[in-house]
Amino acid sequence: MAVFESEIELKTPAETVFEFFLRPANVLKISPPELGLAFISAPDVMGVGSRLKFKVQAHGQVQSMEHEIVRIDSPLLILEKQVQGLFKKWEHRHEFERTGSGVVVRDVIDFDKPGGIIGLLLTESKILDQLEDGFAHRHDMLRKLFG
Q: Is 112 helix (H, G, I), strand (E, B) or coil?
């Protein structure tokens, strides 16, 4: 199992940023274009039990995935888990820590790389590098949106 962690501090109230992340349409706004993220089905606003079906361009092919929101502690935590997809395990914690001047947005992803032939091609370090690149883009977009 591997763990990826990334964080950014924003000078915006935690509640505002938390509400932003509850809307899948906003995730599209901050995702790298080369990821090709497209929702097949998703609610306007996520709640516990919400299912997100989506496609991404990953590792040279389009991958279909489904995640479920399994926990929400407003305005501090959104926990999503892969129900169907490429990885043996994928759990993404979106954490929002209040600071004196805003919020630290922390993403913690626990994953087990895929099995089979694709798992032979994808090393943990390659996946971690791709996550690092994707979250660098996400942070740039969050800075533009929230200053």
A: strand
